[in-house]
Design a protein that fits this description.
Helix content: 10-25%
Order of helices and strands: EEEEHEEHEEEEHEEHEEEEEEEEEEEE
CATH topology of the largest domain: Collagenase (Catalytic Domain)
Strand content: 35-45%
Low-confidence stretches: 7-29
Structural class: mainly beta
Shape: globular
Number of domains: 2
CATH architecture of the largest domain: 3-Layer(aba) Sandwich
Number of helices: 4
Oligomer: single chain
CATH superfamily of the largest domain: Collagenase (Catalytic Domain)
Mean pLDDT: 91
Number of strands: 24
């Protein structure tokens, strides 16, 4: 039996493996672990983890709802794997006790300064390649947010780290996924792998990790297997084992970046009315089946709630395959009648016609703030 530890470091995002007999293997973009002696994927034989939640850690309704939501985000992903709750009131939590547990602690011996950490044990001998135990521990010294309020989150200038995003990252380790540093994904820098619209954020598994879950466990058996999405975050570069993410941008027609300024903890782009630009967004297919002819529309809005009721300025179609995070630009024309000095929102809606039956409809719209300059 071997114990592996994966931790999410605050700010620096540096991973550390303490004991590892399994190599990390990249298939497409995602990463997972396999036994070095028999080259088999390490996974749970029953495709399921039911958490024993620490009694004191998850005593409140808010924290129970947060954990239930994190479980559901993985359960709606395209892989045939589920997370559940076995016990909300586990009194005695600890490592290497053959129980899958999740709790909060301030013990440096467990956390080593990390905001969250996942320990898991597996067995590789002969033809065996099975997971035995997973434990996730969150640092009580971190200022966490369990709500979906956008403004208080660190990616948008707030002081609270999104707990849901970090929970999804650590659960990814628990089901067998490793870190990824070369595409936008939850197994990299998790706190800004996020969807936002109308002042609300949504933490999600995403295309890359969902594709990894399919590789390990096969296709989900749930009824709804489709989901397309769009976000205003993108891959920036590698920070050690982790991908680092940054806001999408607006470009001039010659592909030079439009000037931008800080705005409500994010970025606002300085554009002129009546001119054309290239708007960048990251599109994902978070479901199981490839999608072609996906209807995409761009809008101008006076607020950050992008809907089909806003002023539509462009329509088109896209092909979104399951094995690729697709950050791209589309040429848009800024209406000539917009007011100089005013802030607007350059929005986008994927599947704006509602043609695809999806397991999540609230991740189809997002935006980039713009300010009209003379």
């Amino acid at each position: 039996m071997v114990t592996r530890v994966d931790r999410t470091k605050a700010k620096l995002f540096i991973g550390l493996v303490t004991v590892c007999l399994a190599a990390c293997n990249a298939v497409h973009a995602y990463s997972h672990y396999h036994c070095s002696n028999n080259d088999r994927n390490i996974r749970w034989s029953d495709h399921n983890v039911n958490w024993r939640a620490g009694k004191n850690s998850f005593a409140s309704t808010a924290w129970r709802n947060a954990l239930t939501t994190a479980n559901s985000r993985w359960n709606e992903a395209p892989g045939d794997f589920t997370f559940g709750i076995r016990n909300w009131g586990e009194k005695y939590v600890g490592r290497s006790n053959s129980q899958n547990e999740i709790w909060f602690s301030s013990k440096s011996s467990l956390l080593d300064g990390a905001p969250a950490i996942c320990y898991w044990r597996y067995y590789c001998a002969g033809t065996s390649h099975k997971m035995l135990e997973a434990d996730i521990i969150f640092n009580t010294n971190v200022s966490w947010s369990t709500t979906d309020t956008q403004s208080n989150k660190t990616p948008y200038g707030g002081s609270l780290r999104p707990w849901g995003a970090t929970a999804l990252h650590e659960m990814g380790h628990a089901l067998g996924l490793g870190h990824v540093n070369y595409t936008y994904n939850i197994m990299g820098q998790d706190w800004n792998h996020i969807h936002a619209n109308n002042g609300i954020v949504r933490h999600y598994v995403g295309e890359d990790a969902g594709h990894g879950a399919v590789h390990l466990y096969g296709r989900t058996k749930t009824t709804h297997k489709n989901d397309v999405a769009v976000t205003h975050w993108k891959y920036r570069d590698a920070g050690g084992e982790y991908s680092r993410h940054e806001p999408c941008r607006v470009y001039h027609n010659d592909n030079t970046a439009v000037a931008r300024e800080d705005f409500n903890g994010f970025k606002r782009y300085l554009v002129k009315a009546g001119q054309t630009y290239k708007a960048e967004f990251t599109f994902e297919n978070n479901g199981y089946y490839d999608q072609s002819g996906v209807n995409v529309a761009h809008y101008i809005s006076t607020n950050d709630n992008i809907t089909t009721a806003d002023t539509r300025i462009r329509t088109g179609t896209m092909t979104l395959n399951r094995n690729k995070v697709y950050t791209t630009t589309h040429t848009v024309s800024i209406p000539a009648d917009l007011t100089v000095g005013q802030t607007y929102y350059l929005g986008v809606i994927v599947d704006y016609t509602g043609s695809i039956t999806e397991f999540a409809e609230n991740n189809n719209s997002t935006y980039l703030p713009i300010r009209i300059i003379p």
